[in-house]
Design a protein that fits this description.
Length: 347
């Protein structure tokens, strides 16, 4: 590997980064860096974006061979602009992401992914190779299959510490390499502990929840997560359907737009699709309740919470909404609410 490519969005095709000879590095909003982003960005902006920028301002990052941005929302676009001001010598690329899923959008995104791949190979002075891209996709899909098997185990029984181990593997795929994550997961497909009872089964969703210690905290707070839907959880390791189209980049576009359920992406044929999907995931994972963890000032998610609440109410599934700023401290402030909610659910 010839260095790391930084990125911040789950719509990033990691196999393209690795095929070009780089390793991925997802910049999580975790940092002891001072709060300086307000000098460049508005205070009432997504805390995810501001904390990533804080890392850049404090140089709290490894050496990056380049930085990849996706214009998934206005805040992400503002981060790209601020990055140029903060680190003007970095190689960067910004691609646009359609907000709807239709044939025109898929064709557009396929061309954007092809432009990304071409740029990455050029950055590494490496000959463009579809074969290497396909090989890296196969490895990625092996990881995705293993993640799915673990998720199936988690949805059936409570195994202490199992989901936090899964999050460590997903984080490795995001910040190190698919190969290393795959080697880690081989011995984790079957849980290493005995199934236990006594905690409330809950489905959780939202923007991002990436720290494995969070899931251990949940278990201390009388709940266990039967499944999750975050851009930093198993949704990030979605399988790529290489048979979706003869063009590998069109297959990538179809796979990412079809499988992702980010609040910023809409299906115009099913306006309330995200709400129905969350209710369905909660039922399929045998959860007794649902907790939504959304970021402050995230308009796409906040705008969809009412329809999500209604969809869960229609299914008689209790719902707790929590708004935070990505920090463990802000989550700790919600402990009383979470414990009260899970006690109400029972076991």
């Amino acid at each position: 590997m010839n260095g790391k490519i930084g990125f911040t969005c789950a719509y990033t095709p990691v196999p393209l980064i690795e095929a070009a000879g780089f390793s991925p590095f997802r910049i999580f909003p975790e940092s002891k860096a001072p709060d300086q982003a307000g000098h460049l960005l508005h205070d009432n902006l997504c805390p995810h974006i501001k904390k990533v920028l804080d890392r850049a301002l404090a140089d709290y990052l490894p050496y990056l061979s380049g930085m990849f941005f996706i214009n998934s929302c206005d805040s992400m676009r503002r981060l790209s602009d601020a990055w140029h001001e903060t680190r003007p010598n970095d190689k960067t690329i910004l691609i646009d992401l359609p907000s709807v899923n239709n044939n025109l959008s898929l064709d557009f995104l396929a061309k954007e992914y092809e432009r990304l791949a071409t740029t990455l190979f050029q950055w590494n002075n490496k000959a463009f190779s579809l074969t290497e891209i396909e090989e890296k996709i196969d490895t990625w899909n092996s990881l995705a299959d293993s993640v799915k098997k673990i998720e199936e185990n988690i949805s059936q029984n409570y195994f202490p510490g199992y989901i936090s181990e899964l999050q460590k593997i997903i984080n490795t795929a995001a910040t190190d390499s698919t190969d290393k994550a795959l080697s880690m997961i081989k011995n984790k497909i079957e849980p290493g502990t005995t199934a236990k009872n006594g905690l409330s089964p809950v489905f959780v969703f939202g923007n991002l929840l990436f720290d494995p210690k969070v899931y251990d905290l949940f278990e201390k707070w009388n709940m266990y997560v039967t499944a999750s839907d975050f851009c930093t959880s198993s949704r990030f390791v979605s399988k790529i359907d290489t048979d979706a189209d003869d063009n590998i980049f069109k297959s990538l576009a179809i796979s990412y737009l079809d499988q992702m359920s980010c609040a910023r992406t809409m299906d115009t044929t099913k306006p309330g699709g995200i709400a129905q999907k969350i209710a369905q995931q909660a039922k399929e994972s045998n959860a007794k309740g649902v907790i939504g963890f959304t970021l402050k000032f995230c308009d796409p998610y906040l705008a969809r919470i009412p329809m999500i609440r209604q969809a869960l109410q229609d299914e008689s599934i209790p719902f707790l909404m929590i708004e935070s700023d990505c920090t463990m401290g802000s989550l700790g402030q919600q402990q009383t609410r979470i414990e009260a909610f899970t006690e109400m659910l029972g076991v």
